[in-house]
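Model: You mentioned two targets. I'll fold them one after the other.
Researcher: Yes, keep them separate.
Model: Target one:
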Amino acid sequence: MKNLFFAAVAFLMVGAFASCTKTQTTVTEPNTAMVTLKLEVNNDMTNDTTYNGANQTQYETVPAGTTVQFVVDTRNLQLNPVSGKNYEMKTYSATVAAGGVVTMELPAIGDPVNYTVKFADIELMEKTNFYNTLTSRTESQEESVIYTLADQTVTVFEGAELKREFIYN
């Protein structure tokens, strides 16, 4: 009976410790919102075919170090903006990390705030296949291509955790 009691206590303790190791949701600082963007590009066309020959686009991640800017009119960060006051445009910059992900903590208020996201152009080698009629074989070729992504708008509010995915053309 004593062993059963100790076993039950040990089981409860293990359960209590296990529940403490669960992944916690990231809590943003007061007056901020967390924006996470995943940026992709299709610069390797040679992997866009499945094993049975069907088309299936496989995106590659944007290179680490690519710059992303978040621009906001600071008037929109005021709950009660002053009429006639000249508010400035503020820019926050971030760089893409490995895996094509950029994370930025931005000022926010309880009301929705729009940020314009500006993406730097990137120059990459684009890899394609072509059929060589002289050799009767499919061959690969690469050429330098500049990829762009038009400005996007993200809307945040205090405490929000926004995740978005964008694809360069």
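Model: Target two:
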Amino acid sequence: MLTLYDYGDSGNGYKARLMLALLDRPWRLVEHDIMTGATHTPEFLVKNPDGRIPVLEREDGSCLPESNAILWYLAEGSPWLPAGEGEADRRLRADVLRWMCFEQCSHEPYVATSRFILRHLPADSPRRAELPVRQEKGRAALAMLDRHLQGADWLAGGRYTIADIALYAYTHRAEEAGIPLAP
């Protein structure tokens, strides 16, 4: 059975939980409180030397960290990751990957990190000084998504894919990052 090592408030973990639910696969959840250092124990560092969640432990005991890698692994062979050998399928897979890279480079560092600072760090944390720049870049990432989605329901290929799951995880919680979605 698959095991997901996760922290309940993590948007990155949410991606994996949502994919597992969509696939209706049996799995178990093992919670790790990132705020108490639970992902930096010797036992956990064997699963992910980077000390971060989520981590998917496969049936053979091997572990896969990184939320988008977990999404890709789980979605392989499913409707949420386009398959095929033709040029149109290759382009669609590349577009899915493009948006997953955008999520990790231009969205998550700003929306998710702002949310983390506001939800989990004390009001006097020196990291609060990062918020204006992070929130501005988060707004820019959301504006890019908004422009792309003008007249479209989905990010890639006119259908629901793991690109949408990857970007939904923190977008739908942007208000908690101090980034209103209304504009």
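Researcher: Noted. Anything on target two?
Model: The first helix runs from residue 11 to 23.
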